[in-house]
Amino acid sequence: MRLRFAGLGVTFLCASLCIAAQKPVTATIISMQSVECGTKKEGKNNSTALVCQQYLVRTSTTEYQIRQPKPSEQAILPANTPIEFTLDNDKMKFKLNGKKYEFLVVGTSAIQAR
What we know:
Structural class: alpha+beta
Strand content: over 45%
C-alpha cells in the first residue's frame, strides 16, 4: 500500500514539474543580426551562402541566441519587442502580432546580477 502511495506521489510531482516547465516566460527581443547558416548548391561548381536571422532575447536572468530553423521569407522581428515564450527541447516558441514563431536556441548565457 505504501508503495502505491509513493508511486502516486512521484507521478504527481513529475506531472507538476512538466506543467511548470510549460509556463510562458516574459522576455524582450534585444537585437537581430544576419548570420550564415549553410550553402545552397547552384550547378556543378557554384554555391551560394544562405543567410538566417539570429536574435538576442533577454529575460531577467538569461540571454538566449535564437535562429530561424531554415532560411525563408520570414518577417524581421523588431527590436525592443516584448514576448512571452515557452521552451520545448532546443526550440523557443512564441506568438507576436497573432503569428506563431518557432526558433532554434543556439546559445544561452546567464545575466550577471548587478
